[in-house]
Amino acid sequence: EADMACLYRIHLRARLSFRFLREIVKFPCHGPNELYDGVQRLIDWENWLQPRQSFRVDVTGFGEGLSHTHFTALQVKNAIVDLQRERWGLRSSIDLNNPDMCFHLHLSNYQAVLSVDGSNSSLHKRGYRPAVGIAPIKETLAAGLMRMTEWDGTNNLVDPLCGSGTFLIEAVSMLLGIASGIDRQFLFKNWPDFDISIWNKELKMAQNIKPLNRKLSKVIGCEVDEVIAQSASDNVRKAGLEDYIEIINCPFQEFQLPPGLGFLTCNPPYGKRIGDENELPNLYKKLGEYCKEQASGWDLWLLNGNPKLSKYLGMKASRRFQVNNGSIDCRWLNYKIK
């Protein structure tokens, strides 16, 4: 449970979550008719949705006679607009892309839970990444993986295959305490009990970034593709981190690591969404050689979605963590480079 201040705060600051839902009602549901009746009867729609407001219904889970999420969403939509027409002679319009309210129905174990979503879209969309690589990692996953490295800014941080720069942007943003949702528009501002004074207080605290009391070590991304490297630079600039992160357009083999120790982090292709699986062993071999020749004493953290490829690094992982990158089963591998 959370009060409104906490609800606003987690929307602004949480880096690992996709969305936060506020439960309105839970009721038994054994089929379409009971769903329709429950939606109409158990919710104060005069309070939660005015006919002038648009809305969208998202559905997860399945129930008896409700095996298709699109059909289930239509049942909820029909229940709402039929009630509006009956009471006011007007109905809300549907807006899938930019609604005023987003309702979320979850079905499980003959129970229906209707909630409101505080945001229109997944919270992994920070707003700094209009420009992306071919298969970019989600910001939420990148943030979680970077947190696991325990990088604290005292050592260098280099991504030799940086793509759109997400690892580096998330790492530095966390270190600086930049609120992940600071540039988002939130739907909870349309809720009937939205409190502007509490919101303004939380927003002001989130905007109050304390400067680092020390110099940050080098944070550098390497990208061989000129267009993608420019996109990464644009993303860094949009995130307001151009004073902290440098993007270099060159093959990683040509890049000279900065003095001192540090962390190498990367998400190389694994032949599932990008990369020819037959050509990738050579990439991993070159990366392993680069690490052993240039980065002795450093840590390598590598996201691997193809166990056949990681062996070509020629190194043994000291730690491995199972993670999912979308639908791809991956391992977050940590190597102590000797």
Please describe what this structure looks like.
The chain is an alpha/beta fold and 338 residues long. The chain has two domains: 21-117, VC0802-like, CATH 3.30.2130.30; 139-181 and 211-336, Vaccinia Virus protein VP39 (Rossmann fold, 3-Layer(aba) Sandwich). Helices cover 33% and strands 21% of the residues. It contains ten helices and eleven strands. It has helices at 4-13, 32-41, 45-48, 69-88, 139-149, 166-176, 196-207, 226-238, 280-294, 307-310, and strands spanning 21-28, 55-61, 101-108, 111-117, 156-159, 219-223, 246-249, 262-266, 299-304, 319-325, 328-336. Strands 7-6-5-8-9-11-10 form a seven-stranded mixed sheet. The protein has a four-stranded mixed sheet with strand order 1-4-3-2, with helices on one face. α2 (32-41) packs across α4 and α5 (139-149) crosses α6 (166-176). The radius of gyration is 24 Å and the shape is elongated. It starts with a helix and ends with a strand. The model has no long low-confidence stretch (mean pLDDT 91).
Q: In a nutshell, what does this entry contain?
A:
33% of the residues lie in helices and 21% in strands.
Helix content: 25-40%
The string of secondary-structure elements, in order, is HEHHEHEEHEHHEHEEHEHEE
Mean pLDDT value:
91
Shape: elongated
- CATH architectural label of the largest domain: 3-Layer(aba) Sandwich
Strand % is 15-25%
Would you tell me which CATH topology of the largest domain applies?
A: Rossmann fold
* Tally of alpha and pi helices: 10
The largest β sheet comes out as: 7 strands, mixed
Q: What Rg is obtained from the alpha carbons, in whole angstroms?
A: 24 Å
